[in-house]
Amino acid sequence: MAVTLNLPQVYSFADESEYKIPWKEGKGDRRIRYIYAVGAVVVEGDESLSGLLEKLSDLRQEAIHDPSIRNHEESARLKSSGWHLTEDQISTAVPLWQFMGSSTGFKYHYRFVESLQKIDGAKLSRVYAVLHATIVRDLVRRYRYNPAIEFAFEEFTDLNSKFKRLVEFCAQPVEELEGKMPRTKVVRKGESDLSSVADYMILGISRLIGQNEIECEKSVGCDGHCRTSLFEWSGRTLGHLDSTNLHFRNFESIRDSMSSLYRTRLHTGVLS
After folding, report:
1. At what angle are helices 73-81 and 46-64 packed, to 10 degrees?
2. Residue 145, by phi and psi: left (phi above 0), alpha (psi -120 to 50) or beta?
3. For 31, which DSSP code?
4. Which domains are delineated in the chain?
5. Which H helix or E strand runs over 76?
6. Which residues pair with 16 in a beta bridge?
7. Which segments of the chain have a pLDDT < 50?
8. Measured by CB atoms within 10 angstroms of the end CB, which terminus of the chain is less buried, N or C?
């Protein structure tokens, strides 16, 4: 039976990231070396979306005209393609982390896989497709009485033509949507500041995981059980990390806005 509810538009902005853990030479030879992750920033309601976008636009303009980078190529890059954590200087990155930590309206979702070896080519596309699907599946079920969902994916060459089919595949079994498929679009790098927020969230958490692996390798007798406390919702430590660590502080600032976060197990066929 159809359920008629006056529900707000839901917007999801997704991105993906590869992170190579910075092991020193001769260290971590038998440990995780790469983290592949996708994530989504979800905003509920047009008013909330427009408010966050307006604030992010103002923040971006402030960063572009910051005296420390005004005459630097960083300013031109930020103007043309927005924030990107792997490229941003501290004076550019800190304001966005602070905004993410102090603003309400964000709901973060993160999925990751760990690898001993680098993954690339078609195998990497399959990994990202599976990870994106886990988030899309969970979101269409969470908002199953609301067909007004829009999924925006930052462009990724091998997946651009497949994102729409991926969303429809995940949404099709949800009977409550009554065949009404969510909207799907692909956005260019820098087109949306909320895609930049997704980028920061994803890589920031991947760096947290990687730093914990490095600290775990130094800790005699830990045996990896530190991972069970890495994403606790409260406490002064995350695994082996505490507030003296930058990645801890960045995660701490957004922890209350995390809606879902977990490691995904891949079928062996994905990497065959």
Report:
1. 160
2. alpha
3. S
4. 10-263 (3.30.420)
5. helix 73-81
6. 38
7. 1-2, 4, 272
8. N
